[in-house]
């Protein structure tokens, strides 16, 4: 700032340059602001959950991780997440096992098999399914799916009962169980997995498909050689989006599942519970302390979701050099 | 294993548009035949009819006959998948499978054909990569991704992948147009070596390349935009470039159009 003329000139030059880059700077700050905001919100949620959980956990008379029952508002508060964590993970797993193969199949049908005039409306229909509110799925589940599950449940009990998991120990009970919930969740996450996979499959470069065909691949072999490996990271990401929804689904599970605090591997027996379902059912009647306890269970769901997503990122990153992104 | 190709009365369509019209020619085994001509004259389309790759484009179809020795590739009982196993193809842009290692790229065709024995696959990988003049450069990193190689190496990898299944014919669609001069030279040398075993057909925009690598040259042309491409003449390369029998060929190779 001592030699004023050059400094002033530099200042002018800088100003005119920065004027012409005003748009850049606005956009940069906007996007940086959004990024920071996201981190702040995440931290706020985590901090809030952790604080309220701390209050609850300090007064829990049972072991929070291994206790089955949920009685935070009893004179001697005893509550634990064992049943909830089990139910959440099992129902989400059942949903993924059913939904991922079907979704990949539908996505391949739309992207590689169906003629264009069928594929277009079909894709639209699948997208539409994603827009159905979960309360509607829940009502459909309890009014239609549950009454129609008897046949399948009996069949599985008879032929797959030896697996223990599909053994039905209480005959003739309404199948408001984890398995039915899993099927309902599968239907709910199907559209999102299908839509994302479909877009990934569509982006497979034509030249890789032709490379496979020119080697004498049939259409299915071409899909196996060129399309599926290329789409693998996309399928994983799509599944994670679906899994996130399945883990956190609240109202549909709350309506369909006949919840109790029994932890049973027999998924065809009614009972069990999930984090989100438990919060939805208990929140209104809970005392302030009971709400803190529910927050603690919410924190666990939050952590499980983070872990699952982290694992998916690792799987994708491990094969990065084969991703096709550099081709 | 090289076979003669005998094409008669071949036309190819994209939907209602006729891309090439009434082409007949004979391609000798164990020789290199180059296709030259201006853009849009149908030389790539014609090349793709020789291994039935033309019809993978929706709405595309072919009329006429392509004989590979005694077998008509377009006979109703012929499976296009089988045709593509015996007529290999190398594309304009190197297209190794990005999700596969160098090794897996080379054996991709064999695996499709059901070969699983490790010893057999190992042998084929070495032989094919040597055949494609790539072995010395990649033998220590066969398990690294094929997409990590340079463009020229990738294209030689694609050639190795094509010859690994021991095809009768090798089709090359402008195989050097995305490569630098040194890589181009490596591919051209390779073509010279491969022709002792294969029937090679190469499409090229580079007339010097046609003159350098081919024994016979076919010149394609089209009457105007939207008109189907036609074969103008096919003759010994030396003759095409010194004393062609059709005036249009002379005009094209001397740079008066195209």
Task: Report what the structure shows.
- The complex is a heterodimer of chains A (327) and B (258).
- Chain A is mainly alpha-helical and 327 residues long.
- Chain A has twelve helices and two strands; from the N terminus they run H-H-E-E-H-H-H-H-H-H-H-H-H-H.
- Chain A has helices at residues 4-20, 22-59, 82-113, 116-130, 134-145, 150-160, 178-202, 206-214, 219-248, 251-256, 275-282, 288-318; strands at 70-71, 78-79.
- The longest helix of chain A has 38 residues, at 22-59.
- The mean pLDDT of chain A is 89.
- Chain B is of the alpha/beta class.
- Chain B contains ten helices and ten strands.
- In chain B, the strands form two sheets. Chain B has a six-stranded mixed beta sheet with strand order 6-7-8-3-9-10, with helices on both faces. A four-stranded antiparallel beta sheet of chain B has the order 2-1-4-5, covered by helices on one side.
- In chain B, a hairpin with a 2-residue loop joins strand 1 (5-14) and strand 2.
- The two termini of chain B are 36 Å apart.
- In chain B, 50% of the residues are buried.
- Classes of the chains: A mainly alpha (327), B alpha/beta (258).
- Chain A binds chain B through residues 116, 205, 207-208, 210-218, 221, 225-226, 229-230, 232, 319, 321-327, and chain B through 51, 53, 56, 58, 81-82, 84-85, 88-89, 91, 93, 95-101, 108-109, 112-113, 144-145, 147-148, 158, 161-162, 165.
Please name the defining characteristics of this protein:
heterodimer, A: 327 residues, mainly alpha, MetI-like fold, 2 domains, two-stranded antiparallel sheet, 2 strands, B: 258 residues, alpha/beta, Rossmann fold, six-stranded mixed beta sheet, four-stranded antiparallel beta sheet, 10 helices, globular
């Amino acid at each position: 700032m001592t030699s004023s003329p050059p400094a002033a000139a530099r200042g002018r030059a800088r100003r005119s340059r920065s004027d012409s880059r005003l748009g850049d700077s606005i956009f940069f700050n906007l996007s940086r602001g959004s990024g920071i905001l996201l981190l702040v919100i995440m931290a706020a949620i985590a901090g809030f959950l952790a604080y309220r959980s701390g209050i609850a956990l300090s007064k829990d008379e049972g072991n929070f991780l291994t206790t089955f029952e949920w009685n935070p508002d009893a004179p001697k508060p005893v509550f634990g997440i064992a049943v909830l964590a089990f139910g959440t993970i099992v129902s989400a797993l059942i949903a993924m096992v059913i939904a991922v193969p079907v979704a990949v199949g539908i996505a391949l049908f739309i992207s590689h098999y169906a003629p264009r005039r069928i594929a277009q409306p079909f894709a639209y229909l699948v997208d539409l399914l994603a827009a159905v509110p979960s309360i509607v799925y829940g009502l459909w589940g309890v009014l239609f799916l549950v009454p129609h599950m008897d046949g399948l449940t009996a069949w599985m009990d008879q032929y797959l009962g030896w697996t223990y998991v599909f053994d039905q120990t209480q005959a003739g009970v309404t199948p408001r169980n984890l398995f039915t919930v899993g099927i309902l969740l599968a239907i709910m996450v199907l559209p999102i997995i299908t839509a994302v996979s479909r877009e990934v499959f569509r982006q497979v470069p034509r030249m890789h498909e032709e490379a496979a065909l020119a080697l004498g691949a049939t259409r299915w072999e071409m899909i196996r050689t060129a399309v599926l490996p290329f789409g693998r990271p996309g399928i994983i990401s799509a599944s994670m989006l679906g899994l996130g929804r399945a883990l956190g689904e609240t109202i549909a599970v709350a309506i369909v599942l006949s919840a109790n605090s029994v932890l049973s591997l027999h998924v065809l027996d009614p009972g069990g519970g999930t984090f989100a379902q438990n919060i939805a059912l208990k929140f209104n009647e809970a005392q302030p302390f009971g709400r803190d306890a529910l927050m603690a269970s919410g924190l666990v769901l939050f952590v499980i979701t983070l872990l699952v997503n982290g694992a998916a990122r690792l799987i994708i990153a491990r094969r990065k050099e084969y991703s096709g992104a550099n081709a | 294993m090289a076979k003669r190709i005998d094409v008669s009365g071949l036309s190819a369509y994209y939907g209602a548009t006729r891309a090439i019209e009434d082409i007949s020619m004979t391609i000798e085994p164990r020789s290199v035949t180059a296709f030259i001509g201006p853009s849009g004259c149908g030389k790539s389309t014609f090349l793709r009819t020789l291994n039935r790759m033309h019809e993978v484009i929706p709405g595309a179809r072919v009329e006429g006959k392509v004989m590979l020795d005694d077998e008509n590739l377009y006979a109703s009982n012929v499976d296009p998948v089988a045709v593509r196993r015996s007529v290999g193809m190398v594309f304009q842009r190197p297209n190794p499978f990005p999700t596969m290692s160098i090794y897996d790229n080379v054996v991709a065709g064999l695996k499709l054909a059901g070969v699983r024995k490790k010893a057999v696959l190992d042998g084929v990988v070495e032989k094919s990569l040597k055949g494609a003049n790539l072995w010395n450069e990649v033998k220590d990193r066969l398990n690294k991704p094929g997409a990590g190689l340079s463009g020229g190496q990738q294209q030689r990898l694609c050639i190795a992948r094509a010859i690994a299944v021991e095809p009768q014919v090798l089709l090359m669609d402008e195989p050097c147009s995305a490569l630098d001069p040194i890589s181009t030279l490596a591919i051209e040398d390779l073509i010279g070596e491969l022709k002792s075993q294969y029937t090679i057909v190469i499409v090229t925009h580079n007339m010097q390349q046609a003159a350098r690598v081919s024994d016979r040259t076919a010149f394609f042309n089209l009457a105007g935009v939207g008109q189907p491409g036609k074969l103008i003449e096919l003759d010994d390369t030396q003759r095409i470039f010194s004393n062609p029998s059709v005036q249009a060929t002379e005009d094209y190779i001397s740079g008066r159009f195209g």
